From TrEMBL:
Belongs to the ABC transporter superfamily. This is ABC transporter ATP-binding protein. Keywords: Amino-acid transport, ATP-binding, Cell membrane, Membrane, Nucleotide-binding, Transport. GO terms for biological process: L-amino acid transport. It comes from the Bacteria.
Amino acid sequence: MNESLLTLEGVHTHIGAYHILHGVDLQVPRGQLTMLLGRNGAGKTTTLRTIMGLWKASRGRITLDGQDITAQPTPQIAGRGVAYVPENMGIFADLTVRENMLLAARSAKNADQIDEQRLKWIFSLFPAVEKFWNHPAGKLSGGQKQMLAVSRSIVEPRELLIIDEPSKGLAPAIINNMIEAFGELKRSGVTILLVEQNFNFAKRLGDTVAVMDNGQIVHAGGMEELAEDEELQHSLLGLAL
């Protein structure tokens, strides 16, 4: 296994009176795509939000590239090269696709200042982003919005992408486009942590996998190993398959 870019050690998270994460231990190897799987309510989204500082860990330690980020505010974590695409995608519906992209390109004051080569690369991954460049983002289909959300997260170079359920509700053709795009992102050297319910999507892309249940990691290892063991899949994921 490669050196870990992101590590969680004994992370607990409380939200109000509710104790959601119960000592999460997770390693995300540098340059690989790590799948975070589990039944609904297992704590996957809470884990992502805790990493990003949107919810604060009540106990434990989170390190990014060897630096402790447990108590850092979200903007500071993002400034370390971390991008987060939430399950609801976070698209600004009243803005155009171009304006959504510009908001994420912190080094650019207008669209003409966005890195041209990088934009061409993004358009090659997600042609719909170029096609609807001047259209209101709220008018896009669900799949097109997801493409925009991921494009926005990579408009500037990132060390780590954290993405919550990118295939949810998408047509098979769009899912295949997503798989190809994430494969290309992985080949470019980006480290990816991805929550997913679609096991076929997960096994086609994942290098490593962690499975959550009841706020804890109950299995961690290679994705290929889990993909080949139907009995293990059933015991860990049950009806989620």
